Amino acid sequence: MVTTTSSIRTAKAVQTPEPEGPSGGARRGKRKFPVGVLFILPAFLFIFVFMLYPLVSSGYMSLTEYNFVYDDTPKFIGLDNYFAAFQDTQFMTALSNTFVFGIFYFVIVMVASLAIALLLFQKVRFNSFYRSAIFVPIVVPLSLAALVFLWILQPNYGLLNYFLGDVLGLHFLTQPWLSNGTTAMGSIIVLSAWASIGFVTILFLAGLQGISPDTLEAAEMDGARGLKKIFFIVLPSLRETYILTGTWTIIHALKVFVEPMVMTDGGPGTSTLVVYQQVYLTAFTYFDMGYASAMGYILGLIILILVVLNFFIGRIRAGKDA
């Protein structure tokens, strides 16, 4: 009996590994650490080269006077570029146009995307086809879409004027869409909204699918059907989705560039000139990198403020609903 007990103890001692000391665990961690660094190093290099370095470099450049064609080194001038920007009538016009575009773009994209998402959320035939069709514009290159819209809106041979005048007989509605400041900005807004609604609709659909079916069934049993269910159950349940879609839409609204650059080149006059286009012209036409960086930072700060404001408004509303 004593022999059997001692044999069992010996077997347990052999099978149970001794706990590693602090030095052993540290050595193992040190051996694995370089391997992990190799895996994450490409991501860090990408972020540093294409995000952090340009951000810091342009921030310093915004505090200097530097024409990269004629000047050898940047000349530090402090905040003079920022003060000059707010006294520059062309920059203020571009900023005003950007806000006009952004307000209409934001409202159209958010309302239209939510409405389409609510329709596609219903169980109807060919639902998958409709969802794919509404998403198609997001995969079309924006520059190509702008060229197509440019052809559609041509005053002499454009498809829109042909349809209004020759097909419908509404000749009084035909006009040079891109030669008038109001209709030119409206055309750019329509193109941008068309290109973005599909993606935001998918985000809203993802939020709708996250609503518990039990919640919807309980609401219907309590008499909340139709519009009542939408306004009192469905829409309040999309609080987190509002924050996500609102943030995405604000950023894309204020960084508009391709559409006015391709369709109107900022014209007629400066009626469709936006901030990103003004930054591009200042940097690569007038070669004033310091002033262009300052304008870019002003727009970036405005976007940051609006995004943070959208986040806190969403959180405050979520707290009230809770």
UniProtKB/TrEMBL annotation:
PROSITE patterns: ABC_TM1. It is a multi-pass membrane protein. Its main location: membrane. Keywords: Cell membrane, Membrane, Transmembrane, Transmembrane helix, Transport. It is found in: Cell membrane. GO terms for biological process: transmembrane transport. The chain crosses the membrane at residues 35-56, 99-121, 133-153, 190-211, 294-313. CDD domains: TM_PBP2 (cd06261). GO terms for cellular component: plasma membrane. Pfam families: BPD_transp_1 (PF00528). Gene3D superfamilies: MetI-like. PANTHER family: ABC TRANSPORTER PERMEASE PROTEIN, INNER MEMBRANE ABC TRANSPORTER PERMEASE PROTEIN YCJO. Belongs to the binding-protein-dependent transport system permease family. This is Sugar ABC transporter permease.
